[in-house]
Design brief:
By secondary structure, the chain is an alpha/beta fold. The chain is 24% helix and 19% strand. The longest helix has 13 residues. The chain is globular. The two termini are 13 Å apart.
Length: 139
């Protein structure tokens, strides 16, 4: 299982290597990685979440590790790094302005049903993930 938090101890000044590794880890667990200029695509009958994370925030990386241990089957997961992707209407449709990381937007069809920011150690995003998704089975 990928360990996003391991990126925290491998920081460099420009963060490019860590950002590439962060995106690779996100893709490895099956998430769709958003780049600058991309938009999410919501399915009218689907379920989706959009989650943010930055390499320089250990709590963000811990939240991503938590999500990676969860069974998100049936839910499309979009990931973006707000250091490189501006969280506008293309990334977080219908959501209020993002003011802290991590952020998670939950969609049912094309409708925003929840938007949570911060609170990565307990409460906030990490608790929302735990409520939404069961642990992956170890088999």
């Amino acid at each position: 299982m990928p360990r996003f938090v391991s990126l925290f101890d491998a920081q460099t000044l420009d963060h490019r290597a860590e950002t590439a590794a962060l995106n690779e880890l996100a893709e490895a667990v099956g998430w769709i990685v958003l780049q600058a200029g991309n938009s999410i695509g919501l399915d009218e009958n689907g379920r989706a979440i959009v989650i943010s994370g930055v390499t320089w925030s250990k709590p963000d990386l811990e939240v991503l590790d938590e999500l990676a241990t969860r069974d998100t089957g049936g839910t499309r997961v979009w990931f973006f790094n707000p250091d490189y992707v501006f969280p506008d209407e293309r990334i977080l449709p219908g959501a209020p302005r993002m003011v802290q990381t991590p952020a998670l937007a939950e969609y049912s069809g094309e409708r925003l049903v929840a938007f949570v920011q911060g609170g990565s150690a307990s409460g906030g995003v990490i608790d929302h993930i735990r409520r939404l998704f069961p642990q992956r089975s170890s088999t």
